[in-house]
User: Fold these one by one.
Assistant:
Number 1:
Amino acid sequence: MKQELRVAAYAVCVRDGEVLLARWVAKDGTRRWTLPGGGMNHGEEPLATVVREVEEETGYASEPVALLGVDSVVRDWLPRVGAPGSWQGLRLLYEARITGGALRPETGGSTDLAAWHPLDTVPGLPRVHLVDIGLDLWRARPPLGHSRHSDPRRN
């Protein structure tokens, strides 16, 4: 069985009681909110990845200020080839602050909209599980960087 490991970095940007989210578009057209971030390029530093991804998906310049934690997700299929196998995603979650730029949607990428959402409205949003993990890490700051919401078989 073929195995694949991908590493990604995501930002938890909270200011004035709101969190910055990007709307991810699945291959079937389903749209769900996620944290801005994504896959690391070969040879790229994780901090550079999260800064690049925030800018690509939201238009904002950002500065990571803390490593919140690491999350792992496992799938029994390979997304790139659509075949059986084992795929694991290792997701690094950083707290980041916005330092410049202007909010705008990504064009030609995996997201189609970026927006600030009041923290108390997040539970009602259609979202990927990573949003809950990121906000839990941001709130709880667990010493080992592991969220109580982590489940390797969820997205």
Number 2:
Amino acid sequence: METGSPHDTGTADVPEAAAPDAAHAPAVPDAGAAEAVAEPGAGAAEPVWRALPPGLLKMRRLLVVVWLGLLTLATALVPGLLTGPGWAAFAVLPLAVLVWGWVMLERNWRSWRYAERADDLLISRGVLWREETVVPYGRMQLVEVTSGPVERYFGLASVQLHTAAAATDATIPGLDPAEAERLRDRLTELGEARSAGL
């Protein structure tokens, strides 16, 4: 009896003592931590974020260069021809906005990311003010893929998510068309499964 009870308490203590050691042991080496992130169980705890393709940044930069370039020319030519060359210096203002916009567009593009979890979709964006939207699959009513003429030229499409509450509607811009269609099909399937379960 005495041998049985210390042995039982010993086995109860061993997993408790071994669990922290096992938890600390893989966390120390980087390789063990990388393998833990790659496991499905760890992936469910920490979402796998996906960034937007670089084509969106190219498209937005081209639009900024075209519009602000035309504004710079107009600001330089019209006052310069009508009032004198000194007034053409105002063209520096739209040119400065163009340079600032070039840098800010990249920062904004890098801030966009999305992650598919088991029960919802996460969308994160914003440079100064971070905004993270959680869209539950069960509340999705409509998922559509849109692509305007400029987006089609750059081979991009946007996924628009419409939910029961307008406040949780969301958009993921600038995706590859194949990824946009895959995301639309998966979100529609998951939304139907979740609403059928309710």
Number 3:
Amino acid sequence: MTLTFEADPSVDQALTDGILALWADVSNAGGAVGFVPPVTPDEIRPSLLRHLAGMAEGSHRLVVGRDERGEVAATAFFSFNSHRLMTHWVWLYTVMVHPKHQGKGYGRDLMAAVEHTARTAPGFEAIEAVRLGVRGGTGVDTFYAKCGYKEVGRVPGAIRVAPGDDRDDITMLLTLT
């Protein structure tokens, strides 16, 4: 089985529900995607609605991966910079692969789809780099390095997961030029 990736999918209830379920499952499995378990889809909904509002405004883009049943299995959101001196790079947010699909190479497939979108999709013509924030202590920085991202910054203890559990905020960069 492989995932099928699509940039800028139509937003409907099935996509919204699929992303909410994915986000909750990833968070509750310990994924570093903005929440700490336990979390419910209802608690995540305001964050997703902000992403979707950004998509409607044109400031955010989405790459979604679907499994053979058409269910949402992976996501990555791009956020364009509004500052006129930083429009040549984008942020990548909420990069997720469902826990049941991890270890099958789908994360690499998602990151390849992200890079392909950043290099070829309409609206990305002036984009020279993709920046990604990573929570330290999870090992995902090693994964992103294998996908071509380089660590370009680190703020020690900037992310407080719980009292006494502070993690580094790592900035990684994929240069497209």
